[in-house]
Amino acid sequence: LILPVEGTPKGTSCDSVKLAIETGYRHFDGALVYFNEHEVGQAIREKIADGTVKREDIFYCGKLWNTFHPPDLVRPALERTLKTLQLDYVDLYIVEMPTAFKPGDTFFPKDENGKHIYHETDLRATWEALEACKDAGLVKSLGVSNFNKRQLELILNKPGLKHKPVSNQVECHPYFTQPKLMEYCKQHDIVIVGYSPLGTSRDASWVNLKCPPLLEDELLVSVGKKYNKTTAQVALRFNLQRGVVVIPKSFSPARIKENFQIFDFSLSEAEMKAIEGLNKNIRFVELLMWSDHPEYPFHDDY
User: Fold this and answer.
1) Which residue among 33, 148, 206, 292 is buried most deeply as judged by most CB within 10 Å?
2) Which residues does the UniProt record annotate as the domain NADP-dependent oxidoreductase (predicted)?
C-alpha cells in the first residue's frame, strides 16, 4: 500500500494504515516528503501494541529526498524518518530520485524567478553514505527509485560496492510496461516496484494527460468481467504475475480491501500477452519540471 503526498485530512493516513494492516497489507511505501510519516508510524505501533502484527511482519520503505544527497546529510535524513515513525529501523530506504536539489530547509528550493535550484549529483557518494547506514543497522536493505539503466550501472559498477540496490521503484502499469528496464533489472537481481500501477489522478499540474485513463481500458474491462473483478484488480494482477511489486494508493476503505483481493484468480498466458500489448510507452508521471537537471532520468530510452 502506498501512502500519498500531503493534503489528506489529519488522521486519514493513520486510519487507512490500520485498516490496511487488518486487511492483510504488510508493505508500506512512505517518504519524508509525504508529510504523514508520523501518522503511519503511529498506526504501525498501535497495530503492534494490540498484537495484530509484530514489527518484523511489517515492511516499511522510506525515501531519501533530493535535498539530502550530499553524503553528510544522508544519515540525518534517515534518522529524521526514524524519529518521525518512532521505529528503530526501516526495512528499505531508497534514493527517491537521481536528481539532487540544493540542500536546505525547503524540499523544493527555487530562485527568485521560480526556477528549481539544483545541486551537483554524485550518486556514488550518496550510495556510500547509504551503505554506512545499513552497516549501522538503521536500514535492512537499500534501493533506488526512478533510476535509468545508466544510473543503475553507476552504482553497480562502483569500486568497493558493499551493498547493491535490491529494488528500483518506477512507474509501471499496462500502458507503460517497462520491458527493457525490467529485463535489465532481472539480470541484476533488482526487483521492480511499480508505482502508479493503476495509472494516476488526472491532475494536469503533474500528470501527462496524453495518456487516456487506464482503468477505462476496454480490454481490462472485458477481462475483469470474465473473472468478476474490477479493472484495477486486473491491472494489479497483471503486474503481480510479471514479478512486479505493486503499491496501489488508496484512502477509500472499500478500495483498500478491493485492491487486496487479487490472490484468488490468475490471468492466462494469452491474457497476459494481450495486456502487455496495451503498452503505449507513454508515462503518466514525466516530471518535466526537472527535465533540465543533468541527472533527469527519462531522456534515456530506459
Assistant:
1) 148
2) 12-279
Q: Please tell me the distance from the alpha carbon of residue 82 to that of residue 90, in angstroms, as a whole number.
A: 7
Residues 108, 140 contacting (CB under 8 angstroms): no
Angle at 232 between CA 229 and CA 238, to 5 degrees: 85
Q: Which domains does the chain have, with CATH numbers?
A: 12-299 (3.20.20.100)
Q: Which amino acid is at 301?
A: D
Bridge partners of 176?
A: 173
Of 25, 34, 93, 296, the active-site residue reads: 34
Q: What is the C-alpha to C-alpha distance for residues 66 and 187, in angstroms, rounded to an integer?
A: 28
Position 238 confidence tier, pLDDT thresholds 50, 70, 90 = very high
pLDDT band at residue 12 under the 50/70/90 scheme: confident
Contacts 24+ apart (CB under 8 A), 290-295: 290/97, 290/99, 290/116, 293/99, 293/116, 293/118, 294/118, 294/121, 295/98, 295/99, 295/100, 295/121, 295/123, 295/151
